[in-house]
Design a protein that fits this description.
Blueprint (H helix, E strand, L loop, with lengths): L1 E3 L6 H12 L7 E4 L9 H9 L1 E4 L3 H14 L1 H12 L6 H23 L4 E5 L3 H16 L30 H9 L28 H7 L5 E6 L13 H7 L2 E4 L2 H9 L9 E3 L24 E6 L8 H14 L5 E6 L5 H11 L2 E6 L3 H9 L3 E3 L9 H8 L4 E4 L15 E3 L4 H13 L1 H18 L2 H16 L2
Parallel strand pairs: 1-2, 2-3, 4-5, 5-6, 6-7, 8-9, 8-11, 9-10, 11-12, 12-13
Length: about 475
């Protein structure tokens, strides 16, 4: 479950999904809002978009089937879910209205997941996606499936409490219990007789069962987890309900030790054992040094690459000012800025570059299948963000053996060991950024050694294989019968 999928800024989620499917997990993707066609930039993105279930936009048929009908048939469960979803916001009319929207979307998610026989929901980011996963499970606990025990779950089926291993229904083995939820696999990894995630497809009940029987088999998703990325959620902990989410989730995967520590700060210590650190990763077979790389000539421009959304949090004005300073110190060699990405700051930053005499090329947004040649054009990679999680673009650049400069904030020191796998600068300090880039420009041997060490760091800790293995272990532990 994610706010928008697929999306160029969520490629790490796509890698995780594909890796989990290859590992044998049945993974269906849900997006709160359908991604605009203009933002689907690669064939793989298009394929994922086709099999992703979107909550919005919602036409009359979708609203009737997945919202109105559940509300009419289970008003008590919906009301109880709404109490949880709106808790703490009754005195704030604007936030209360948003929370009611979340409840409506959660009911839709519950209905869609229930029809597909999904027993566990996992959300990426502690934003609306995790709100919906949480509330969909709250809905299940109030609907039940057959005789229930304390907590609202069916007799014989384990709950979502941390550390509790769900048991199989009486008279069935663990494998049989898993088949009740997942069904026999068919091509595509979905249960036989259950419709896929293609837009508009209506799932049917498993063969040989009536709709009522199928509904008794699965009441809806019972457990949920989420991946905590940060760092925007840490800016407004109350609005994101961080502490409550962390305590309500069955388990949380944190992308870094820093992220885990920040989540610990806002939640009950009893919840901490359920927080695991699972790094994001990159495909180091794809993100690799150019095979035909040649030595730069002395008169070649020193090219600094920036990759990211051109928004205020990425601090591009700091890099532009640093490039102007760099040009004054590395002469006669020319400095060039290569900017990949789009956003509201594109035109102002292009104008600022022209004003300062910075040689800059603004490429715009590109798909993952187009970005590798741009990495290979770079002599250095630089990011000047004011807040970050643990940046995947930084991992990509390091995997390509590019010497990097990054701000000394949040989890970035978990990637960059100063002077060994990269260089850092104080956030917001253009002069320090310029000085670190100058070290690379004036000492190519040092830059090459840092680039090699950077790739080794990624190979050791931040590969797609390591990330998927971490999530496989996370889900195996979480969903063990």
């Amino acid at each position: 479950m994610i706010s928008r999928y697929p999306l160029i800024s969520h490629t790490f989620v796509q890698r995780e999904v594909l890796g989990l499917r290859e590992a044998g997990f049945e993974v269906e993707t849900f997006s709160v809002v359908r991604t605009d066609d203009a933002e689907i930039l690669s064939p793989l993105d298009r394929a994922e978009a086709e099999r992703t279930v979107d909550l919005r936009p919602a036409g009359p048929a979708k609203l009737w089937r997945h919202l109105v009908r559940p509300v009419l048939s289970r008003p008590g469960a919906v009301l109880g879910t709404a109490r949880v979803g709106c808790r703490g916001w009754w005195s704030d009319p604007r936030q209360l209205l948003w929370r009611l929207f979340y409840v409506a979307e959660a009911v839709m998610l519950w209905s869609m997941a229930r029809e597909r026989g999904i027993g566990h929901l996992h959300a990426h980011h502690a934003n609306v996606a995790s709100n919906l996963a949480w509330l969909a499970c709250e809905m299940t606990s109030r609907v039940g499936a057959g005789p229930t025990r304390p907590g609202g779950l069916p007799e014989g089926v384990g709950g979502g409490r941390r550390g509790a291993a769900p048991s199989a229904p009486e008279g069935t083995s663990g494998d049989t219990a898993r088949r009740i939820i997942a069904g026999p696999k068919r091509p595509g990894g979905l249960p036989e007789g259950v419709g896929g995630g293609r837009r508009g497809a209506a799932p049917s009940a498993p063969e040989g069962t009536s709709g009522d029987t199928a509904r008794r088999i699965i009441a809806g998703p019972k457990t949920w987890s989420f991946t905590m990325h940060g760092s925007s959620e840490f800016v407004d902990v109350a609005r994101h309900d961080l502490g409550a989410k962390a305590e309500a989730a069955t388990a949380v995967a944190c992308i870094s030790d820093y992220t885990r520590s920040q989540l610990m700060m806002v939640s009950d210590p009893e919840s901490w054992p359920s927080y695991s650190v699972v790094h994001c990763g990159v495909d180091t077979d794809v993100y690799a040094p150019a095979p035909d790389a040649t030595e730069r000539r002395a008169d070649d421009p020193f090219t600094v690459l920036f990759v990211g959304r051109l928004g205020s949090e990425k601090g591009l004005p700091v890099l532009v000012d640093a490039m102007a300073q760099l040009q004054r110190t590395i002469g006669p060699r020319r400095a060039r800025l290569l900017v990949v990405g789009d956003g509201e700051l594109r035109e102002p930053m292009a104008a600022r570059c022209a004003e300062l005499g910075v040689d800059a090329e603004f490429v715009g947004s590109v798909g993952q299948h187009e970005i590798l040649p741009l990495y290979h054009r770079a002599d250095a990679f630089c990011m000047t963000s004011f807040r970050e999680g643990i940046p995947v673009v930084l991992m990509e650049a390091m995997a390509c053996q590019i010497p990097c400069v990054a701000p000394r904030i949040t989890a970035i020191p978990e990637l960059i060991e100063e002077g060994i796998t990269g260089l850092t600068a104080t956030a917001g300090r253009a002069d320090m950024v310029a000085a670190q880039l100058e070290r690379y420009a004036l000492d190519p041997d040092f830059a090459r050694e840092v680039g090699k060490a950077a790739r080794e760091k990624v190979l050791a800790e931040f590969t797609t294989e390591a990330s998927v293995a971490g999530m496989v272990e996370f889900f195996d532990r979480l969903l063990a019968p």
